[in-house]
Amino acid sequence: MSVAASTLPEISARRRVTDKVMRGTLVAGTLIALVPLVLILYFLIKRGVSAWTTSGFFTTDPTGSFFGNPGGIRSAILGSVVMVALASVIAIPIGIGVALYLTEYGRDGWFANLVRYFVDVMTGVPSIMFGLFIYIVLVKAHVGGSGFSAWKGSVALSLLMVPIVIRSAEVVLLLVPSSLREAALALGAPRWRVVARVVLPTAAPGLVTGSLLSVARGMGETAPLLFTATAAFALTFNLGALMNSLPVQIYTDIQSPRSEIIDRAWGAGLALVVIVLLLNVVARFIASRSRQA
Amino acid sequence: MNPPETTSSKAPPSGAADKTTKEQTDMSTAGDRSPERAQATRVAAKPGAGTGKAGHGVKLKDLNAYYGNQHAIKNVTIDFPANEVTALIGPSGSGKSTVVRCINRMHEEIPGARAEGRIMLDDLDVYGPNVDVTAVRRLIGMVFQKPNPFPTMSIFDNVAAGLRLTGTKSKDLRNLVEHSLQAVGLWDEVKDRLNQPGIGLSGGQQQRLCIARTVAIEPEVILMDEPASALDPISTLKIEELIDELKERYTIVIVTHNMQQAARVANSTVFMLEGEVIEHDATNKIFTNPSDERTERYVTGKFG
Fold it and tell me: If DSSP codes are grouped into helix, strand and coil, which group holds residue B51?
């Protein structure tokens, strides 16, 4: 006895129609979701690239004067890099440290679960709250002898980055096979050496990826810096002074009535997006390479 | 070997523990309660147990182990004689692996797990109050079911890992690595690529690498938890030959699901069921003429 297509019940017209309609709805929804993204990229590139071509865009600082040459975004780029670098130096070790505690020591204890809960809450806190917090605790109190200063901006950014680092690092550390921990423990290694010489090296690529993503996130934040490092024009590497940054530059430029300065905001926006994109690409590259190994 | 005063002086627990007490008496040649049974175990012992490296036996006494509220190991008493291979057999969930993990105190790494009772490595009480658990694990090495070389380390570093992870300084690390790899018969296969990653080796080679890693810290006892169950028959054969060589220098406890393997490598065999020792005797006797009906049903493949 052979089985032919005719022996199976036919697919009803209703099922065919339902299938078509549902597929169409899903495709349409996806396209609608893509519209704003594409438009943002379109305007950003269209207006940003023309700003990039103005002379001295990357090599001069904003002059701050309304008339005449508005200047470029050098101090904003370098200010962002300096402040985010300091924030990373604070946030990444703390974040990985907490993640190590959660996976290697706290595990499923009540305290570890409490920490996890607060980390989740912290990832949901609006970034402006971190800015306000530092504003009240460090800026208003004139800690370190001055009010607004770059290092306070870094602290605010690091508060934002720590929960991101913890969450990503914990996931990566949990991926390290427990058989490796067992192998090391069974050799008579103390736990800290197991962590330092087996767990961390094995998880290293993933830790780098997660950290870079948190750096990218910190790069784009405006609110924590508005309240702490505020706006400046001149290039400085003094962490105790006011410091410019890309998001804050965009924020102030976009309020100007002068079209050249608004164009500069677009150029700065494109620069910010490109930097964040590069960080993401590097993070993905490291992650994919470690997966092949 | 040490005088077995701990076992012979203890009064045997009555009733259900009768099966396990016989192993205690086996160890004491003087004052045997059951000479013919002692003879049975003694047959398996190497004639020259005192020659070569003086081995160190392990004695379990009334071991109880728990996972949370689950009572996994019930009053287990076993002697693992020095320089012999002792196999643990039994169906899944009978507690073989747990017994082994108790010996080097890896059992307590599992959250909620605990163990009670006495485990003696010669005169060292493994669960003694002032015993450093890392020191115990250096004396009692372990080989796992799945080969688990460290993926970030080269072949060389994997063998040296035991020393580096324990902070032991070695004057001649290269020599030690070579000796350890030779001891597991891997040296000729890898001597030209010591700097390549350990996970690049085949499964059987990886497992021998893991054994070399254990041998490198020069333990007294090597525990093997189904060391060949993830390997092909040829690699399994190599591991078994290796076990036969290693018993010259080490006391070996091997958990296995493969009864032919137990028959091939073990001097004596312990049959476990539901956390209890049912029978412990010379391997030959366990497989040809077991005393307990449950052992017979298991070794003849009627259950498990």
Answer: coil
Chain A residue closest to B109 (CA)? A182
Instruction: Report the chain B residue with the minimal C-alpha distance to residue A176.
Output: B151
- Compute the distance between CA of residue B96 and CA of residue B84 in angstroms, rounded to an integer: 18
Band (pLDDT 50/70/90 cuts) for residue B160 is: very high
Largest distance between two CA atoms of chain A: 93
Residue of B nearest to A293 (CA): B151
Looking at residue B11, its pLDDT comes to: 39
Distances (CA, A) of B206 to A3, A38, A202, B202, B210: 50, 51, 18, 6, 6
Q: Do B150 and A184 touch (CB under 8 A)?
A: yes
Chain B residue whose CA is closest to A109:
B111
Whole-number Å distance between alpha carbons of B74 and B89? 16
In this complex, the residue of B148, B164, B217 whose CB is nearest that of residue A179 is B148
Enumerate the domain spans of chain A: 74-292
Say which amino acid occupies A258. Answer: R
Q: Considering CB atoms only, which of A108, A193, A198 is closest to B150?
A: A198
Contacts of A76 (CB under 8 A, 6+ apart): A62, A244, A245, A246, A248, A249, A268
d(CA B49, CA B27): 13
Domain covering A74-292 in this structure, CATH number: 1.10.3720.10
Interface contact B166-A188, CB threshold 8 A: yes
Please tell me whether residue B48 adopts helix, strand or coil conformation.
coil
Residue ranges of the domains in chain B?
47-299
pLDDT the model gives residue B129: 87
Name the residue with higher pLDDT: A162 or A55: A162
A204 contacts on B by Cβ (under 8 Å)? 152
> What is the average pLDDT across B56-64?
92
CATH homologous superfamily of B47-299 equals P-loop containing nucleotide triphosphate hydrolases (3.40.50.300)
Please tell me the distance in Å from B269's CA to the nearest CA on chain A: 24
Does pTM top 0.90 for this prediction? Answer: no
Q: Do B106 and A187 touch (CB under 8 A)?
A: no
Q: So what's the ipTM on this one?
A: 0.78
pLDDT bucket at B304, cuts 50 / 70 / 90: low
Q: Which of A26-40, A136-150, A279-293, B101-115 has the highest mean pLDDT?
A: A26-40
